[in-house]
Each structure stands twice: as structure tokens, then as C-alpha cells.
Amino acid sequence: MSLTAEERATFKRDGVLIRRGLVAADQVRHAVDLIDESYRKPMNPGDIAVYSQRTFAPELGDRAELLALYTDTGAAELAADLLGDADPVTTAQIQIRVPEGEFPGVQPEKAMHVDGVSCPHLDGRELRTFSLIVGVVLSDINDPTCGALHYVPGGHVAMARWFAGEWSLGMTEQVPPEIDREQGVPFLGLPGDVLLMHHLVPHAVAQNLMPFPRVMAYFRVSHPDHANRRLAALRDPWLDYPPLADTSAPTFRE
Ligand SMILES: O=C(O)CCC(=O)C(=O)O
């Protein structure tokens, strides 16, 4: 499976690409059944904050049914197509937005950020970056108020400029003020839809005002050289994307 020329251009411009229905219904069902079983166990509201920063159902992170959402659906091929080459992915992250009505005040909105930089729960000098995030929708996300991910199209270019010119390691700001003020575009979709998002695209996550959980599985994908050049990859959005590096880069909202 590979990307079309139009998809490449979209990814280059927006930093985001969406493939609807990439994951087959039975693959979705196997994953949902597993997560559902774990979610039904009594949950301590105090743990939800920790799960929201790391992963829900940490015991399921290496389960074949979850990893297959990335490895056996064509998503891994699309990632390799963007990056030229990619390290194998060995864990799945489950992110659930719990219904606000059931767990009031426990899971506030997540502010605009890029993953792995200036994380509030980590040492500010520690980078836990990667190249590409792949998100698989596992519940109906038809309404932004059900805890949708909101992303800033083209924000990867603005973030690279900020990282290169104004940011320094150890700063607590996660994004510049103009990005912090953005509402972002809600990523809406149905189970089986897949999002491929550049590591520098800023995103926020809304509270879930619906009565059912919003469930996503995420896979963090790295170019094999990423770990040796984390800082440089924050400042050059195409360093980890050799197949895309030779075409001209758009500027934010050009
Ligand atoms: O819950 C989500 O959809 C995304 C979570 C997120 O932004 C993160 O884990 O960094």
C-alpha cells in the first residue's frame, strides 16, 4: 500500500493525512473487545490522570490484536512511505476520553502541545519525541464534544520555526502563544478510520461530554535515525521525511 501524489501533497501542507476505513471491521472488533474488557474493570478516578498522560490499559500495550491495527492494515506501509524507513513499532497507546458525566472534573481538556517536548509530567530537558503518530479510531467520533482530538493543519511548519528560533530545551511552554490560541480542527471519524500526523503538528484534546467513552489507539513511529537527532528534527520538519524533503515546503497558512 502506498500514498497517492495528492495524499503526499496534503501531508506536506497539513502535516496530516486521513485514510477512512483502513482497518477492517473484524480487526476493530478484536481490539475493542480487549479494551472494553479492561475498561469495565472498576477504575480509580485518581488513575485516570496518569492514564491520560501515558496510556489506558497499559497491560494491553503489546497485545497482538492491538499491534495488528498498525502492522496488518497497511498503516505501517503508509508510514514507511512517508518516512522512507521506519523502526518497528512494539507498543500501542490506548487513549480514552472518559465521559465527563461519569467522571466529573477528572479529565480536563488537554492544551495544545506536540508529543514528547516539555511534557508537564516529565523532566523539561527530556525529549521523548518520534517522527509520526498513527491514530486508529475505535469508537464513533461524530461530534467534537465527544472528546475529539483537535489539530492545527500546517502547524508543523510554524512549530519547526518556533523550535529553531525561540524555544530552548527546558522551557515549560509547549507551544507559542499564537498556536495556544488555536481551536484546531476536530478529527471526526468512525471505527477503522486512520490518522497519520507529523510529530510537529500541535494538537489538543477536548473533554468528552457524551455518555460513552471515546477510544483511540495510537502508534508512535520513528525514522531509524530519529533518536540521534531529536533536537534537529524539532527544527527541520523534513529531516525524518527524506521522501518529502525535496519538494518545496509550504509556510503556515500560506
Ligand atoms: O486522546 C487523544 O486523542 C490524544 C492524546 C494526546 O494528545 C497525547 O497522548 O499526547
Task: Give a description of the structure.
- With 254 residues, the protein is of the alpha+beta class.
- It has a single domain (5-245), classed as Jelly Rolls, CATH 2.60.120.620.
- The protein is built from 9 helices and 9 strands.
- It has helices at residues 5-14, 25-40, 45-53, 64-71, 75-83, 155-165, 177-180, 230-235, 242-245, and strands spanning 16-19, 93-97, 110-113, 132-137, 149-151, 185-186, 194-198, 203-205, 214-221.
- The strands form 2 sheets. The chain has a 5-stranded antiparallel β-sheet with strand order 1-7-4-9-2. The chain has a 4-stranded antiparallel β-sheet with strand order 3-8-5-6, with no helix packed on it.
- The chain is globular, with a radius of gyration of 17 Å.
- The chain starts with a helix and ends in a 9-residue tail after the last helix.
- The relative contact order is 0.23.
- The mean pLDDT is 93.
- Residues 95, 97, 110, 115, 149, 203, 205, 216 line the site of 2-oxoglutaric acid (AKG).
Tell me the number of helical segments per DSSP (H or I, 4 or more residues long).
Answer: 9
Ligand list: 2-oxoglutaric acid
Main structural class = alpha+beta
Q: Return the domain count.
A: 1
CATH homologous superfamily (4th level) name: q2cbj1_9rhob like domain
- Using the CA coordinates, give the radius of gyration: 17 Å
* Mean pLDDT rating: 93
Amount of beta strand: 15-25%
Query: Shape, please?
Result: globular
Ends distance:
30 Å
Considering DSSP H and I runs of 4 or more, what fraction of the residues is helical?
A: 25-40%
- Name of the CATH first level: Mainly Beta
Total strands: the figure is: 9
The CATH topology: Jelly Rolls
SSE sequence, one letter per element: HEHHHHEEEEHHEEEEHH
Biggest beta sheet summary: 5 strands, antiparallel
